[in-house]
Specification:
The chain is α+β, with helices and mostly antiparallel strands. Helix content is 36%, strand content 20%. The relative contact order is 0.12. Bound molecules: histidyl-adenosine monophosphate (HAM).
């Protein structure tokens, strides 16, 4: 066998569904995180970073069996000590674990937290759907009040708007409290039993494990059946009805546009009362839940984020008390892909000057000059690995940076530097001591 040529397949590659994020993409992610963090801080949220690995039961109990995340998508790790850990597939159960573990119930309530980082789901990779993807999420834990649902939703809309997402579409629904949900589920199961003949194996299984998930089905045969299915809002008891009405009133008051979507139930078990998802109506968005050729409605496009209230999560995780909470998680990869105008991160500064060095003496002293500029917050670009004036000038011309600094043998000896205006080609020699001040005056 010849080993002259190594084909692409033989080279190492990132795991399927996972990517290197670099260059402008990296800055886009960072720009989004900074914007979202700025808004979260403004609203009094504090940061938390939970471990990437958590005990498996946090998710099997918290998110729930019968959900895709738990049944099919978790990356499990058996440690050398024999523990079963999973790479976090979502953030809410981890944050609730941290809240309980650190006794945050003894702090003034509610506790408002934000987080970001990678999540892992063994999903079928395609555009907008990765096995490692990035989230930014917020959680308000310790308040059952409807205003908190509205604040969280409002903040989600703000973050998307300020991240350059045009035409945000917000879908909301209420699945009520446990009592309302029980009545609703009974009715839903009866309804789907009548349509068993049209249901595929997965949805039949859902009828047993988690009937709400059928409303989320990707099967085009079920679109109409789902559209005609009993609606959770018709089964809300008076407490649940009141809560949902208040959320909508708050949203109306703040001026957040939303659309009621009766088929919106969300794929995780822990939700109660309000559930919501953010979409963009831009047609460039990839499509979800739709077979090729099937008619595409806005709801069927990929969600940029989703969330809701989760008043029973703490009990599902084995804690003795109910701890009310509400929050959302964004899919940052999708936001970066969909945004037309993602904010620039703070580190990404436009260079004010291009620095050229000529000769050994000048090269040696270059770092000192660059350091003077850095300390004076003057962003500079340079190519210290290059030697010739021609190659450096060519880069300077191409970069469009308005001024070039030329540091040659003579200037290095005299502690001065030439400042060249690239447009007029005029040049001034300035003492290094006075350089920062001079550049700021330009
Ligand atoms: P989720 O809807 O499962 O909710 O995920 C949140 C967002 O993550 C989705 O709306 C989507 O944008 C993004 N996402 C999900 N899977 C993928 C994937 N494979 N590739 C790229 N992006 C993806 C939660 O995780 C809840 N913890 C949200 C929450 C917070 N609820 C209350 N608080």
């Amino acid at each position: 066998m010849s080993d002259k040529k190594t084909s692409r397949e033989e080279l190492f590659q990132a795991p399927k569904g996972m990517r290197d994020i670099m260059g402008d993409d990296y800055y886009s992610y960072q720009g989004f995180f900074e914007k979202a963090q700025e808004i979260a801080e403004y609203y009094g949220f504090k940061p938390i970073q939970t471990p990437i690995l958590e005990q498996e039961e946090i998710f099997t109990k918290g998110v729930g069996g019968g959900t895709d995340i738990v049944d099919k998508e978790m990356y499990s790790v058996k440690t050398k000590g024999g523990d079963r850990l999973v790479m976090r597939p979502e953030g809410t159960a981890s944050v609730m674990r941290a809240y309980i573990e650190h006794g945050m119930q003894n702090k003034p309530q509610p506790v408002k937290l934000y987080y970001s980082g990678p999540l892992f789901r063994h999903d079928k990779p395609q555009k907008g759907r990765y096995r490692e993807f990035y989230t930014f999420g917020i959680e308000v834990i310790g308040s059952p009040k409807s205003i908190m649902d509205a604040v969280v939703i409002h903040m989600g809309v703000l973050m998307l708007k300020e991240a350059g997402i045009e035409n945000i579409s917000l879908k909301i629904n209420s699945i009520g409290d446990a009592e309302s949900r029980k009545d609703y589920l009974k009715e839903l199961v009866n309804y789907y039993k009548k349509h068993l003949g049209k249901m595929n194996v997965t949805d039949r299984q859902r009828l047993k494990d988690n009937p709400l998930r059928i409303l989320d089905s990707k099967d085009p045969n079920l679109f109409q059946i789902n559209a005609d299915a009993p609606q959770s809002v018709s089964f809300l008891n008076s407490t649940s009805k009141k809560h949902f009405k208040e959320v909508m009133e708050h949203l109306n008051e703040i001026g957040v546009d939303y659309e009621l979507d009766h088929t919106l139930v969300r794929g995780l078990d822990y939700y109660t009362h309000t559930v919501f998802e953010f979409f963009t109506t831009e047609s460039s968005q990839p499509e979800d839940k739709v077979e090729p050729g099937a008619e595409v409605s806005l709801t069927k496009r990929l969600a940029l984020g989703g969330g809701g209230r989760y008043d029973y999560l703490s009990k599902a995780m084995g804690y003795k008390k109910e701890i009310p909470g509400v929050g959302f998680g964004f899919g940052v990869d999708r936001i970066v892909e969909a945004s037309k105008n993602i904010p620039k991160p703070r580190v990404k500064k436009k260079s004010k000057v291009y620095f050229i060095q000529l000769g050994t003496e000048a090269k040696m002293k270059s770092l000192k000059v660059i350091e003077v500029l850095r300390q004076n917050k003057i962003p500079v670009r340079q190519s210290l690995s290059k030697d010739s004036l021609g190659s450096q000038l060519a880069i300077a011309e191409k970069s469009g940076i308005p001024h070039t600094l030329i540091f040659g043998q003579k200037e290095a000896l005299e502690n001065s530097i030439i400042v060249r205006d690239m447009a007029s080609r005029s040049q001034t020699t300035v003492d290094i001591d006075k350089l920062a001040k001079y550049l700021k005056s330009l």
